[in-house]
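HOLO CASE FILE
Compound: adenosine-5'-triphosphate
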Amino acid sequence: MTAPLISIQQVSKKFFEQEVLNQISLDIQKGEIIAILGKSGCGKSTLLNLVGGFEQPSTGQVLLDNQIVTKASKRCIMLMQNYGLLPWRSAQKNVELALEGEALSKIERQQRAQHYLKLVGLEDRLSALPSELSGGMQQRVAIARALAIHPEVILMDEPFAALDTFTRYYLQDELLAIQKEERTTILLVTHDIDEAIYLADRIFIMSPNPGRIHREIHVRSTKPRDRADSEFQHFREVIFNEFHFTQPQDTIEYNI
Ligand SMILES: Nc1ncnc2c1ncn2[C@@H]1O[C@H](COP(=O)(O)OP(=O)(O)OP(=O)(O)O)[C@@H](O)[C@H]1O
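Model generated. Tokens follow.
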């Protein structure tokens, strides 16, 4: 096996007296899609923030390509649920903005922005303002903007949670197609069990107080997966059972 692209090594995180994460260890290979599932407050977003360099571990370390992560970098981009687009800039200008620090001519910036907007199916909406786009389209601009930077890793914190089911399915398929082409590594936090099974190569279930990795599930079936087939149902059942296991019977809360 080759060296992992991301190596989370015995990471614990405290906010004041509260231990939010305890001894998290996890290696991620280049090109993998990893989904993190867990009850609200178990530290999923904190884990993403540590990988992205937005927070520092209290103990342990996170390595990206064998180097300790000490700050945020363009190698590892966070894609937020609320898209983070500038409302006064067109779709194309929003993507171009992310490329401003790069050694590219104006024409190259425009071409790269157009290439990624085309990849997410927005070639005919280049000059539209975010307010003129649907939520799904805005999220596609945000995905194009993240991809245009050529990150090695995309961190996704419930990226499609605000979207209707069909838009979510459509974007999940788009994401898989683009990810296959670019071999981007994706670390995804979701409350959506089906989304985790549909997208991920491995799913990590976290238990709370403090957040720990409770179970790792390999999903080896080929993509795109069939949400209706028996294997998919099997994984769904396995994960539901885990949530029974990690929560008291009278407080079970399914976030699907
Ligand atoms: N910057 C911070 N300062 C203090 N406490 C924090 C900070 N960030 C997170 N926490 C606390 O850490 C715990 C875990 O939060 P986190 O957002 O990582 O959980 P989560 O699993 O992503 O939750 P959700 O699914 O609801 O988004 C919570 O109790 C939260 O209040």
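CASE NOTES: Helices lie at 44-52, 91-98, 106-119, 135-148, 165-182, 193-199, 230-246. The radius of gyration is 18 Å.
CLOSED: yes
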